[in-house]
Amino acid sequence: MALVGGEVVAVLELGQPSGLLVLCELDGQTLALSGLEPERVGFWPESEHGVNVDGQAVPALDLHAALKQFQSTGPTAKDSAP
């Protein structure tokens, strides 16, 4: 969990921590994504499986599946209070 702008938000770990959180909104709920290394932000044309960025196909990120996995596994030992 993280405190962002006075709001407590869930942090979904998608990979090894990078020291950055990417904030997004899913179904009206703010989420923070950890384990990403964003290079830039913007809007790119959709492709069949995600988006095209500078001619490169980038697969879609299924946030619903990531959130469902987070909810089913619960907090990890490092997230638990001592």
Oligomer: single chain
Structural class: mainly beta
Total count of strands: 6
Indicate the percent of residues in helices: 10-25%
Q: Any idea how many domains?
A: 1
**What is the approximate shape?**
globular
Walk across the major sheet and give the strand order: 1-2-4-3
- Tally the helices: 1
Beta-strand content bin: 35-45%
Main beta-sheet strand count, sense and barrel state: 4 strands, mixed
Query: How many whole angstroms does the radius of gyration measure?
Result: 14 Å
Could you please describe the fold and organization of this structure?
The chain has 82 residues and is mainly beta. The chain has one domain (2-74). It has one helix at residues 63-73; strands spanning 2-4, 7-13, 21-26, 29-34, 50-53, 56-59. The strands form two sheets. A four-stranded mixed beta sheet has the order 1-2-4-3. A two-stranded antiparallel ribbon has the order 5-6. The longest helix is centred in the C-terminal third of the chain and has 11 residues, at 63-73. The chain is globular and about 35 Å long.
Task: Describe, in short, the structure shown.
With 82 residues, the chain is mainly beta. The strands form two sheets. Strands 1-2-4-3 form a four-stranded mixed beta sheet. Strands 5-6 form a two-stranded antiparallel ribbon.
Main attributes?
82 residues; mainly beta; 37% strand; single chain; 1 helix; two-stranded antiparallel sheet; globular; 4-stranded mixed beta sheet
Task: Present the secondary structure layout.
Blueprint: E1 2-4, E2 7-13, E3 21-26, E4 29-34, E5 50-53, E6 56-59, H1 63-73
Parallel strand pairs: 2-4
Antiparallel strand pairs: 1-2, 3-4, 5-6
